[in-house]
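Query protein
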Amino acid sequence: MDHVTDLDLPGGGHTAIVGVDGGGPGDPVVILLPALGVAAGYYGPFAAALAAEGVAVLSADFPGQGVSRPLASRKNDFGYAAVSDDVVAATVAVAQERHAGRPLAFLGHSFGGQVALVHLATHASPVSALVLIGSGSPYWRGFPNRLKLLVQTQTLGAIASVRGHWPGDRVGFGGRQPRKLMREWARFARRGDLAVERGEVVGEPDFSGVGLPVLAITLDNDALAPQGSVDNLAGKLTGARVEHRFVTRAAGEDGPAFDHFTWVRHPGSFAAEVAVWLRDAVSR
């Protein structure tokens, strides 16, 4: 994806927005929210495929990911609120300026979908549709290996608390993440409520007020967001029009079999399917 602009973050940090232009007046613009520890640029092939369908894409590196600095540390600590309030809000503003008058949609992958829900529930947003891809709740009861998942998520939270950050860049899961975010995420996995910390106030936003059309996609072979996990997250949107789809693709000409990540680098016809839904959703 092409560099669009740099963003200054509160506290002296910075990040960048990348994107791919596509379509024209009246065509959707997707604000793509990445998975935990994944740089925005990783989504280049999928973004290019959407652009070929007339859908423009913008995406920002979340704090401490990709080109964003500083990295998470005991000193540089933040949670869901900062990602939603600082990065997502700024990306929406850039989208409105760069693609004035065009309808906006969020596309959240995995953790990015959770951030999308937090943002939509806590901001007056111009976004008119939401696509969730491989995006679920980490709540342990939504997974086949429930107790194993519970132990893993709570261990991750404990390590982040002791070290001052989660060293996912070293252990191969989730990238380097701040302890506050991992504390919120571990609580989410343990209790099932996405309780966001804002100062002394800790609580789950009122998701019932999110009333836009939602496409919740469960991917075949996705151990990180199985059907139960996806249902638990989408189920929070009691005021939205949620459409569920299960997407599968065997290995073949379009690339490897679908799982949590392969669709990003080998989208094939999947991008066209998403684009068709987006056009219909933003016109409702």
